Here is the input.
Amino acid sequence: MIRTHTVVVVASACVMTSTTLADVQIDLGCFANTNPVPNCSYEGNYQEYVTSWEVDGYTSSSGYTMIDLDLGGIMSTLSGQRLVSVSLIDHGSNNYGQSSPGADIDYVEFMGLGDDVEVSLAYTGPTAQHSGESEEQLLQRIQSLDAFYGANQTDDEVYVSLGNLGALTFMFNGTPGNGGDAGGDAGGDDGDGGIGSNGALAGAGDFHMQFSEVGAFEHFSVYIETTPIPAPAGLLALTGLALQRRRRA
Here is the structure.
């Protein structure tokens, strides 16, 4: 149940280190939960596409901070681009002990995909527990808001601990289709979990990513990879014809 709804607080608390990451093109910003729930800090260029609210259940006195990122709105600013992947990345500014190292991702859901997009999931990073887990096991960890105080990544399958420079990446593969709901309610419900496999062209129209991190003041960033949308076959043929005419001239 939603208790409060608020726009995230913009802050400059994120500490990011320089690193080379394959297939990452656009930094959507750095996030960290702050007190009281559901406030979070955000440092980036897309504040107008970010909101947060509280969902009951983490402890008896406070709930989970849920964050919504309007990917469709962001993609509308990137003319002629298609979304290929989304990554949640820990840039190395957190604590990295044996128990829940770095940012702990409890929940991720993509909403507004159509019928033809397939979504796959992979973890890369130093957390040994996750390196050996299958896609289904990783999905089990993030498909519901079920983290609890005192949990850890080894004994409790309730979140993914990114670890130092670790990343959780969602890859999209599909073609345009009718938009749909990938499970849950874009209005703020925590939904019934997981990554929706329903899809239209990923990143087109009313397309949102909702996610929750367990800790407080643990920083992580969201990156997207995009690729140009292929031109229609007829347009390509006309382009080729125009090039031939130029050569003859």
